[in-house]
């Protein structure tokens, strides 16, 4: 009902006569067109697109930590790249066809040979193409270099997303949970504790499982959350 009245108000204020959305919103949007017809005697339209679902039938773009945003302030280019780099094997070709401008002939050729060791280059290509489209070539290049550095255990982390922390706030030994919150890995001590207890945190490649541990924070240390989120600590 609220969505229908929203459409009505948009029509009255701005002359908006078309609502566009996912096909799961079809009945809600039709309700809006009916309300406009009954209240104003005017015609309005609704248009839907097929939802992008993963191999499990769930909406893509949703993760345990929330939505994947196009805004770099909400989802960094590196995290955006990593999301697409880690899509399910069964979703790679579908995403290439629906979301990229890679020629269909090239995608179909990849599809014929897509198995085993060919999967990772295909996922990397998907992630790069989408990151370049949304954030530009420079950010896509940085994300690609950072991902390759991390997964090849290379020492270069210059392109990895950074968490800037005033050095005065982490002098001496600091509690692990405090560090995770200050680095933006977790929004609260409670969430940080849960991540640690579930084995989701690594520091400089070593998994940490004791939420009460204390450590010395150094410039350049790398914190990893799950499989996709990496942060390089930069002391100010």
TrEMBL record:
Keywords: Aminoacyl-tRNA synthetase, ATP-binding, Cytoplasm, Ligase, Nucleotide-binding, Protein biosynthesis, RNA-binding. Its EC number is 6.1.1.1. GO terms for molecular function: ATP binding; RNA binding; tyrosine-tRNA ligase activity. GO terms for cellular component: cytosol. SMART domains: S4 (SM00363). It catalyses: tRNA(Tyr) + L-tyrosine + ATP = L-tyrosyl-tRNA(Tyr) + AMP + diphosphate + H(+). SUPFAM superfamilies: Alpha-L RNA-binding motif, Nucleotidylyl transferase. It comes from the Bacteria. Residues 174-235 form the RNA-binding S4 domain. It is an enzyme of class 6 (ligase). It holds the Pfam family SYY_C-terminal. One of its GO terms (biological process) is tyrosyl-tRNA aminoacylation. Belongs to the class-I aminoacyl-tRNA synthetase family. This is Tyrosine--tRNA ligase. The lineage of its organism: Bacteria, Bacillati, Bacillota, Clostridia, Eubacteriales.
């Amino acid at each position: 009902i609220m969505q229908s009245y929203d459409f009505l108000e948009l029509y009255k204020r701005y002359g908006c006569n078309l609502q566009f959305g996912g096909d799961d919103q079809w009945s809600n949007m039709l309700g809006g067109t009916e309300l406009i017809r009954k209240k104003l005697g005017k015609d309005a339209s609704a248009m839907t697109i097929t939802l992008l679902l993963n191999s499990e039938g769930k909406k893509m773009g949703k993760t345990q930590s929330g939505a994947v945003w196009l805004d770099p302030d909400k989802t960094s280019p590196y995290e955006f790249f990593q999301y697409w780099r880690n899509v399910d094997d069964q979703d790679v070709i579908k995403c290439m066809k629906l979301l990229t401008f890679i020629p269909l002939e090239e995608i179909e050729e990849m599809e014929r040979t897509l198995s085993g060791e060919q999967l990772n280059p295909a996922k990397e290509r998907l992630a790069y193409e989408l990151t370049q489209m949304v954030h530009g070539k420079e950010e896509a290049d940085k994300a690609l270099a950072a991902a390759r550095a991390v997964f090849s255990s290379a020492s270069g982390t210059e392109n990895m997303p950074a968490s800037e922390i005033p050095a005065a706030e982490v002098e001496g030994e600091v509690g692990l949970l405090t560090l995770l919150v200050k680095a933006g890995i977790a929004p609260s001590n409670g969430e940080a504790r849960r991540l640690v207890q579930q084995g989701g945190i690594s520091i400089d490649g070593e998994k940490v499982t004791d939420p009460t541990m204390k450590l010395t924070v150094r410039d350049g240390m790398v914190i990893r959350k799950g499989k996709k989120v990496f942060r390089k600590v930069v002391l100010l």
